[in-house]
Amino acid sequence: MIESQQLLQPLNYIPADIYFAQDYELLAQGFIPAPSYSYIAGGSGRDQTLAANQAAFSKYPVVPRILRDLIQGNAQISLLGKNYSHPIFLAPVAYQKLAHPQGELDTTRAADATDTCMISSTLSSYSLEEIAKVGAADKWFQLYFQFSREATLDLLKRAESSGYKAIVVTIDTTIRSPSLGALRAQFQMPADCVAVNIQTYEQVTAKHIQHGQSRIFQGVMQEAPTWADLEWLLTQTKLPIFVKGVLHPEDAEKIKSMGCAGIIVSNHGGRSLDGAPASIDCLREIRTAVGNNYPVLFDSGIRSGLDIFKAIALGADAVLIGRLQVYALAVAGALGVAHMLKLLREELELTMAQAGCATIADIRKFNLRTA
Ligand SMILES: Cc1cc2nc3c(=O)[nH]c(=O)nc-3n(C[C@H](O)[C@H](O)[C@H](O)COP(=O)(O)O)c2cc1C
Q1: Which of 158, 187, 198, 322 yields a CA-CA distance of 20 to 30 A from 55?
Q2: What's the CA-to-centroid distance between 211 and ligand 1, angstroms?
Q3: Is the full-model pTM beyond 0.90?
């Protein structure tokens, strides 16, 4: 890894040696301080789920289909009544100033330029109000339940009044295994990288634990959200609510029956329960459980358009890109993120053409084998 004194400054052009979207992953190491890179790239615990996420895609080979007329082909989707020219969204990723001084403002600019739905994190390093003002494209807001319902409601109302079009509630990281990689690299959040949205809200601390109580159950988990909180949240807004971090078909069915707008099959890019299955391996079962017409989004481990094709074939309506957006941001700011999204889209369309799929609906019908 490159030492901090040799760090490269973000480029204001697209580097010549990027051929695939994933090339940004390697290149980014020159632009991000090593401890921060470890925090971004790392998973949780011993990184078993992190590794599984990417490896699992190779279990699903794509058998080419030939000689089909694809002249009318496109990668368009429609979600919540809105049309997008491709099914690639930007996942909520916290603290983007770690990668680039313009952080979330630049990823939003890139989303705006590429017809990409951007999901802004509760833990963004620019405020949700500042991000909302960038560009004209629709944005969604990712909500973490706060220590108090008043604070959660405040965040929700701020997102509503700033014009966000949907809420993504992330429920899989109430408690996380520490990332060994980040610990070993002695990562510490830089002083200028602050979760400004929630700065004034009360935070959970260990001070509430009594002698003899568990640091986990009575400590970290004491204010953890439950199904009752999700029920409550649904009564507080008319915005569609997606639940992010779902891996079990029974949870997916329950979320659907409660009236949520959709789910996001995700293991947080391997940053939550280490030992959870690869996200892609959960998709087919969840799609079967919720039926064909319920919105199912997917993330964790996507590094190419081929991966996106497979996720759609296994049941996703659209996918979210996590780390690749941060890597591209670090290398070339908004230009890098827009370029990375363009490459992913082209890689997806290339796979579609080779697999004889003219539309996203064709991919959903594609019979993906398991090797
Ligand atoms: C550095 C980093 C920060 C993240 N912050 C958030 C967050 O604030 N909220 C959230 O719901 N997910 C967060 N995620 C998870 C992503 O939304 C997404 O689920 C994951 O990155 C997808 O896996 P991938 O990185 O392999 O694409 C974060 C991921 C990373 C790598």
Answers
A1: 187
A2: 35
A3: yes
